[in-house]
Design a protein that fits this description.
12% helix, 8-stranded antiparallel beta sheet
Length: 230
């Protein structure tokens, strides 16, 4: 064999192995997959409003826009049973959330939602303030309001204002559990409410704001997910 061709063949073989190993690292040995590489929004698409989503310092940063309805940066892929982790930091004056198992339903006429209104379970993100808040409970975005019953929505201060907060979410069948900074906040089982939302996209919400307010920001980083069996 020509020595030049042999050398090229070796290089190609090594490169192929390296690429294979690199692809395998996208999912670690425990099944976790990174949802954001810190550099691009590949695999995500924006729905509904026109709030601005951009990448800053390895985080996805959403900024409110006057006159915009709720905005959502959504995964192209859909998920049913999964474990999700992320870190989030939000302006104390801005309400936010992460949609899970969500979908879009057709709007009408000139509505800003005519191309599809985001709806489904939402994991609440909210600063604690002086009296505590409802971060970590489950809200039904465009599908009937709170899914977590009123008697289980106890204001708490496990969400640290002005800091990065770590969320862990498990959705499996009719059960949704949410932890904030290691504290179990939600342990909700509801076959009826979750039956119509067995699978869907994950969406990062930038909430609408009142006139002459803002701009406010919410940021996410270290988003990762692993799919679970039925």
């Amino acid at each position: 064999m020509n020595h030049t061709k042999f050398a090229c063949a070796i290089i190609v073989a090594i490169s192929t192995v390296s690429i294979a190993q690199s692809g395998a690292s996208a999912q670690d040995k425990d099944g976790w997959v990174s949802m954001f590489n810190g550099k691009s929004l590949e695999g995500w698409t924006q729905k509904n409003g026109f709030a601005k989503y951009e990448i800053k310092d390895g985080a996805i940063v959403g900024t409110t826009a006057n006159g915009s309805p709720n905005s959502f940066l959504c995964t192209v892929k859909q998920y049913g049973n999964f474990e999700l982790e992320f870190e989030v930091k939000v302006d104390n004056r801005l309400n936010s959330g992460v949609q899970i198992r969500s979908a879009t339903k057709a709007g009408k006429g000139t509505s800003p939602f005519k191309t599809g209104r985001v709806n489904g379970p939402q994991v609440e993100i909210e600063a604690s303030g002086s009296k505590g808040a409802e971060a970590g409970y489950i809200y039904g975005e465009a599908c009937g309001g709170w899914m977590t019953p009123a008697d289980k929505r106890k204001p708490h201060k496990h969400f640290k204002d002005g800091q990065w907060n770590k969320y862990r979410v498990i959705a499996k069948g009719p059960v949704i559990k949410v932890w904030i900074n290691g504290e179990l906040i939600s342990d909700l089982k509801d076959d009826a409410k979750f039956k119509s939302h067995p699978k869907g996209f994950i969406g990062l919400q930038v909430h609408s704001i009142g006139r002459n307010q803002g701009p406010f920001q919410v940021a996410w980083k270290n988003l990762r997910i692993r799919e679970l069996d039925q």
